[in-house]
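IclR family transcriptional regulator (Saccharopolyspora griseoalba), 265 aa
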Amino acid sequence: MASPPADVTGRISAVLRALSGFPQRGASTTEIARASGLARPTAHRLLSALDEHGYVDRDRASGRWFLGPELYLLGEVAAQRYDVTEQARAGVRRLAEATGESAFFSAHRGGETVCLLREDGDFPIRSFVLYEGARFPLGVVSAGLVVLAMLPDAEVDAYLGRTDLAAEWGEAHDEAAVRERIASTRRSGYSVNPGLVVEGSWGMAAAVFDRHGRPSWAFTITGIESRFRASRRPHLGTLLLKEAHQLTKQIQSGGGKGLTAPLAP
């Protein structure tokens, strides 16, 4: 369970972030309380207040909560400045077509990556670790690993110093193991997640950089272990890096709606 934020703004943010993890079926008050680290009465009080203003919406039949229409309207306005998904969509599609795997585009937001786009290739067996709206801490899944690896050393040290990934994600995510994967990612330019979140489900990712040279997004491909053999990984990595470089170049040349670091800390 997450640590509860101390301030009201932090609590509201925690509730909305938690709710975003249930995009299709919505969430119960208990699920939101658990995901946000808040007491159930506190979570219910905040959800009820947000409901009054349209920021969340409650299904009166099931009692489950969903993100509300006001967030959609605000998002439409914010997208004019911050959205690069339209530029990324073609790259995601090309990766899915070229590899046969599921391809994704994720954004760096604070200490997390958030999946924004998904496109499935023609290989019949899918990996379902990632989906649109899924959030993972930096250092977890290939997108979170490549973003973390491309941050300056001081930021990596600060993040790992305050974050215990192993407590939630297992010993494979202790600090020493994560640092080893960071070093490997920096050498190759792309990250590899060898089934550390779901056994047998592999992923690879390459970072996309904003106009300040910060890793603000990532392209990812995922699939079953047999599709990520050592002999194939360099080819997959090259495809990822090609798309990441192309989008980075577009953003840095002004083709990304003038974006700087929209979703980074």
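Strands lie at 56-58, 65-67, 102-109, 112-119, 135-137, 191-194, 201-209, 215-224. Confidence is low (pLDDT under 50) at residues 260-265. ok done for today
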